[in-house]
Design brief:
The protein is mainly alpha-helical. It has one domain. The chain is 77% helix and 2% strand. The chain is built from 12 helices and 2 strands. It has a two-stranded antiparallel sheet with strand order 1-2. The radius of gyration is 19 Å and the shape is globular. The structure holds protoporphyrin IX containing FE. Protoporphyrin IX containing FE (HEM) binds next to α1, α4, α6, α7 and α8.
């Protein structure tokens, strides 16, 4: 059978400035994960969906009109994804992995459960997206890839393939980080026409911006993840056709 993963040999990045840069990047990822978890997820667990809808918070107006099943899936999705977003960032902390490997293993199991629950919830709510078909396909593809990369990361570590596990976890967390990037892209795209001096009306600008984010929130993350994987000398992804 053709192997999809091939080790790519690159120079090891063990220099001090490289490590300092990684620490800064990791701190940034952790803080943004905490901020998005608190800012976007917490309101859903402190105030009812109806009240949030009345205050026009996030997508609450859309989901206040859906069935109780879809609303339950939304809550399950937000809880699982928020847990994954915060725990996932902690899992990349080298100190935790080396000093407390048992904690890393347990947080890893909770992280994977968060991904599974968040992805299944995401698949159920995707057809209700205000972005229509783009929302359905973009978020569903994200959920499927989220599950698939988590499964590959889990299988790799069960085989004691540490490099493979790290590479799949980088891809998987890049997808988890879509939760942050969506909330970075949306205001940028919303305000872009203003910055370009174009006519601007909120509803139209929001609809335009929201039509882009179901794919934009994760596709560039995956490209960045693959670059990072190669830079670290971890097994990079090869399409079977490219190998042939
Ligand atoms: C990575 C895989 C993820 C998938 C497949 C996914 C999928 C979805 C979908 C389909 C929606 C509804 C969007 C719409 O109706 O247009 C949604 C909303 C939401 N998601 Fe996710 N999501 C993911 C990650 C995350 C993460 C990591 C968080 C962390 C906090 C998160 C928190 C939320 C929240 C709070 C909402 C409600 C929308 C709002 O009011 O801003 N999601 N997600």
């Amino acid at each position: 059978m053709t192997r999809l993963i091939e080790p790519v040999r690159t120079a090891p990045l063990a220099t001090a400035p490289g490590r300092a840069g990684s620490r800064v990047a990791w701190t940034f990822v952790l803080l943004t994960a905490l901020a998005v978890g608190a800012y976007s997820a917490v309101p859903y667990f402190t105030v009812s969906l109806r009240e949030l809808a009345g205050d026009d918070v996030g997508l609450a107006p859309t989901y206040a009109e859906t069935s109780p099943f879809v609303q339950a899936a939304l809550y399950v999705h937000i809880a699982g994804s928020a847990v994954a977003l915060v725990l996932g960032a902690l899992q990349f902390w080298r100190g935790l992995r080396t000093r407390a490997p048992k904690v890393h293993r347990w947080l890893g199991r909770i992280y994977l459960a968060g991904v599974a629950v968040g992805a299944v919830g995401g698949l159920i709510i995707a057809p209700s997206s205000p972005a229509g078909y783009v929302g359905f396909f973009g978020f569903s593809a994200l959920a499927v890839l989220w599950l698939a990369t988590a499964w590959r990361a889990y299988r790799a570590i069960r085989r004691r393939d540490i490099a493979g596990h790290q590479a799949w976890m980088i891809r998987n967390y890049a997808l988890t980080y879509a939760g942050v990037m969506l909330r970075v892209w949306l205001p940028l795209l919303l305000l872009a026409p203003l910055l370009l001096g174009l006519p601007w009306e909120f509803d139209e600008a929001f609809a335009n911006a929201y039509a882009a984010v179901p794919f934009l929130c994760w596709l560039p993350n995956l490209v960045f993840a693959e670059w990072l994987i190669r830079r670290r000398g971890l097994p990079s992804y090869r399409l079977p056709l490219a190998r042939a």
